[in-house]
C-alpha cells in the first residue's frame, strides 16, 4: 500500500526567509501525481502546487516550488520569502494513476512564521 | 460563485443519534469525496462517489453511510455505530475521478459528541 511520510511535525521560519518542508512516499508505480495542500487556521484546504511524475521539471507557483526526486521518492516544498499568511498545516498527498484512484495524505507539517 | 458548501459548520451529536452532514457543489463535478481529519493525522477517506447513484467505501467507512442521488449533493450520515465520531469532516470534489484532476475542498464541519 502506498504511504506518505512527513517527518517534520512542526517547522518555523522567520518572515522573508526560506523554508523547506519534506515529504517522502512509497509506491511501485512509475506514473502518478503529487500535491501539496495548505490548511490555514480557517481549516479550508487549498491546493498549493501539483507535480506529475512523468515530468522531470520541478513545478513552481510564485514563491512555492518543489524539489521532486523520483528515484528517491522525495517531494519537498520550498517556500521563499515567507509571509505571515503562509502559517498553516501543509499536507503532502500522492495519487496513483488511473480512473477512480484516490489521494493518500501525509500527516502534515505545521508551519509557523515568525515576525 | 462556484464552490463547495458544507453545512453546518458545527454539529453536536447525542449518544445513539444519527446525524447528517451536508455537502453541495455547483462546480458540475462528477466525483465527490468525504474525508475525516483527526488531530495530528492526515486526511482519511470515508466514502467517495465517481458518478450519480454510485459510491464506494474508503479506508474508514464503518459507522458511516452516504447517498448520491443528485450530482450536486453528497450527504454523509454518521450513524450510532460510529463510536468515536468527534472529528473534523471535509468534503471534496473533482471534475473527473482521474488521478490528474485536482480535488477542491469545502470549509468543513466540526462534529462533537455531547
- Major β-sheet of chain B, in short? 7 strands, mixed
Strand-residue proportion of chain A: over 45%
Structural class of chain A: mainly beta
Greatest contact between two chains: A-B, 29 and 25 residues
Q: What are the salient characteristics of this protein?
A:
heterodimer; A: 115 residues; mainly beta; four-stranded antiparallel β-sheet; 12 strands; B: 114 residues; globular
What is the structure about, briefly put?
The complex is a heterodimer of chains A (115) and B (114). Chain A is mainly beta.
Descriptive overview:
By secondary structure, chain A is mainly β. Helix content of chain A is 0%, strand content 50%. Chain A has no helices and 12 strands. Chain A has strands at residues 3-5, 10-14, 19-21, 24-26, 33-39, 46-52, 60-61, 64-69, 74-79, 88-95, 104-105, 109-114. In chain A, the strands form 3 sheets. In chain A, strands 2, 5, 6, 10, 11 and 12 form a 6-stranded mixed β-sheet that branches. Chain A has a 4-stranded antiparallel β-sheet with strand order 3-9-8-7, with no helix packed on it. In chain A, strands 1-4 form a two-stranded antiparallel sheet. In chain A, β10 and β11 (104-105) form a beta hairpin. The model of chain A has no long low-confidence stretch (mean pLDDT 93). Chain B is mainly β. Chain B has no helices and 11 strands. In chain B, strands 2, 4, 5, 6, 9, 10 and 11 form a 7-stranded mixed β-sheet that branches. Chain B has a 4-stranded antiparallel β-sheet with strand order 1-3-8-7, with no helix packed on it. In chain B, β4 and β5 (43-51) form a beta hairpin. Chain B is globular, with a radius of gyration of 13 Å. The mean pLDDT of chain B is 91. The A-B interface holds A 4, 9, 32-33, 35, 37, 42-47, 50, 52, 91, 93, 95-103, 105-108 and B 33, 40-45, 48, 50, 56, 58, 88, 90, 92, 97-100, 102-108.
